[in-house]
């Protein structure tokens, strides 16, 4: 749909469309919405229009609504609102950045084709999807020279581009890197990733002691299965509909959801994992876990919120 709708992405002559209230026009609401959907449309429409007020006064309700999933037509604008990316001065530099040359260009080009290789928007070589993905990654590598380009981040940018035009995706990505600790995860030393692995391991030891001992006896290190969870917010683990729901919550609550979902997954799979050796466990993480929630992510998200998470302890 994005490809056929010339207005939705930067069209070839470089005209640009800003996403503002235009993203939420009632005309795009198809007439055959079920009542439930219609109610959630009206509700989210109101939230978006009165965002400043709602955010201050009804923060808890917004959090709970996000956990139930943002309707997909609203994702673009709600994600921008959640991370305060709507009016960033850096947006005006975007077209200038594209004219510059980045030392990371070769690396970015090499990885573009491996990002969502099955997805229609990205799979064709030199397609519009690959082009805008390259643009945003390149622009970011010029703005943040210390991080430059880091493998894995393209999955996050790709998801943003499935929802919104490239300048908006660029602004949201800058916000995620700066305010959501992602930049720390992607720094060359990856020290923050090591910290997350350590915190997660301590959670396993505390909540699932038998599994912790089993992992140790098999030399099955946390980073073998969990680093991609943190680096791509489960985008390389689950099919998109499920990963996107987790990403909604990440936009609203930050990295805590990755710890919660990670532990919930281990709890649900503990019995099977206890029977397996290292090789078997790797297979289980790659082949079995991604399709456990094909019926929908609600069960997983509920389990994630049963997990006891102590933010003081994490600090």
TrEMBL record:
Pfam families: RabGAP-TBC (PF00566). Residues 9-28 have a biased composition (Low complexity). GO terms for molecular function: GTPase activator activity; small GTPase binding. Residues 1-28 are annotated as: Disordered. Coiled coil: none annotated. Residues 69-254 form the Rab-GAP TBC domain. Keywords: Coiled coil, Phosphoprotein. PANTHER family: EVI5-LIKE PROTEIN ISOFORM X1 (PTHR47219:SF11), RAB GTPASE-ACTIVATING PROTEIN 1-LIKE (PTHR47219). This is Ecotropic viral integration site 5 protein. It comes from Galemys pyrenaicus (Iberian desman).
